[in-house]
Amino acid sequence: MTVLLPAIIPVALIIFIGAIGQRYLSLDQATLSQLALYILIPALVGDKLYRTTIAPQGALGLVAGFIITSGLLYLLVLGINRLGNLSETVGKSLIATTMFGNVGNLGLPLNSFAFGEAGLERAIICLITSAILLFGVIPALLKGNGWKYGVVMTLKLPLFWAMIAGIVFHLLNVEFPYRLDAGIEQLGKASIPIALIILGMQLASTRFTVGKYQLFASVLRLIIAPAIALFVGIMLNLTGLDLKVLVLQTAMPAAVNTVLMVGEFGGEPDRAAKTVVVSTVLSFISLPAVLWILTNFQPLPTN
């Protein structure tokens, strides 16, 4: 409980404030989302990679673990689609919500509160990997537009260029004049509360309906996904924070961006949106359980 409550309560508080703001204030959710996506989160990514203390081997392990887990989830859902004889649109929706969790708006703050700066650095690596997969791979999987289209989509991401800049400046040991790096750092710090406020606004503005499909999709996202990640992490010999962050990031509820991707490239946006809401609400039960398990049954030293 000494780790659990300090990690969960601040996150829940800011989400609640966002929900209240959505209900009683004239907040523009689209503007806040663009602010986070195009400015704040890229600033956080660039700053953390510039200052990172993670060894290259650890970073590669996290990337490999996240990609392999995503691939196994994709194969699992393909099997479910065939065995369940699901329609093409339902199957595509299930693929999107199962493969991609909310590793940004919820994953970054929770890892930060649970594991500190070291955990946040590792969570950012998972975020970058997820974003490249989401925008670079999912169009090809859902609509068959080919990998060239996915590469073009990836190159349009501010997140991608922030990643490149952060890595290059880190490797070159660049020192910024007039404390410009401090300004970028402050922008990055603003991304975490803004992301949680946006999540609260999204929950407050979306109808909560629970059906068999939403429950099944939520189980895949909240329980099966982290179980697969734990297995993959152990097989890759990940330990300490690397393993904990990989599992916790993979345990996040369905990402809001999956609704947009399903609407654009095939599937049922309404079904995906309901899955996002149901899995997010249920994650307030599942995430503390996952965090408790990681804290009590993975007493490994931090790398």
Automatic annotation (TrEMBL):
Keyword Transcription in record: no
Listed transmembrane segments: 7-25, 59-80, 122-142, 149-172, 192-210, 222-240, 275-294
Topology in the lipid bilayer: Multi-pass membrane protein
Protein origin, superkingdom: Bacteria
UniProt lineage: Bacteria, Bacillati, Cyanobacteriota, Cyanophyceae, Nodosilineales
A Pfam family hit: Mem_trans
Protein name: Permease
Gene Ontology biological process terms in this record: transmembrane transport
Keyword Hydrolase: no
Matches recorded under InterPro entries: Mem_transp_PIN-like (IPR004776), Na+/solute_symporter_sf (IPR038770)
Family: Belongs to the auxin efflux carrier (TC 2.A.69) family.
